[in-house]
Amino acid sequence: xxxxxxxxxxxxxxxxxxxxxxxxxxxxxxxxxxxxxxxxxxxxxxxxxxxxxxxxxxxxxxxxxxxxxxxxxxxxxxxxxxxxxxxxxxxxxxxxxxxxxxxxxxxxxxxxxxxxxxxxxxxxxxxxxxxxxxxxxxxxxxxxxxxxxxxxxxxxxxxxxxxx
Length: 164
Hints:
The protein has helices spanning about 90-100, 120-130, 150-160, and strands at about 5-10, 15-25, 35-45, 55-60, 70-75, 85, 105, 135-140, 140-145. The protein is α+β, with helices and mostly antiparallel strands and about 160 residues long.
């Protein structure tokens, strides 16, 4: 399949520049959606104490690989975000490395292709959601996270969704 990759720089209105990649396929080539099997959808509260808005997500099983992928599917309020599919395994690998120490959302940047400044914070909000629950707010700051007390059980429960 032949694709052309286009890069576009967007300004989010707050002076932040975000690079957005898009692909354009030849007109006669159909794009196959590998993520049509959504196993969980939900929402997580944004991290900022100044808002009660939410970020929405989908968790899907890749139809060929059989692995779970997560994406930010929507955003209540403002702020650009990427809708790229992120392997859940990549996210849990980073979380596993954090141990019991508090960490910032920026540790999640390495799993994201898009450079939007909001993505890692929005992803952290989703990971804090009651639907996912892998991390919780650290007692030190609303913007710091720690692994949930039952992190391993919640991770195992999510990974079992592959069989669903």
